[in-house]
Amino acid sequence: MKRIVYGLLATLSGVVLLFSYRTSLEAVMPVAADNTAGTTSSTTTVPAPASTSSSSADASGSTGTSTPSASPSPSTTTTQQNTSGLADGTYTGDAVRTRYGNVQVQITFSGGVITEVQVPQYPNSNREDQQINARALPVLISETTSAQSASIRMVSGATYTSQGYTQSLQSALDQAQQ
Question: Per the count of CB atoms within 10 A, which of 23, 36, 152, 177 is most buried?
Answer without folding.
Answer: 152
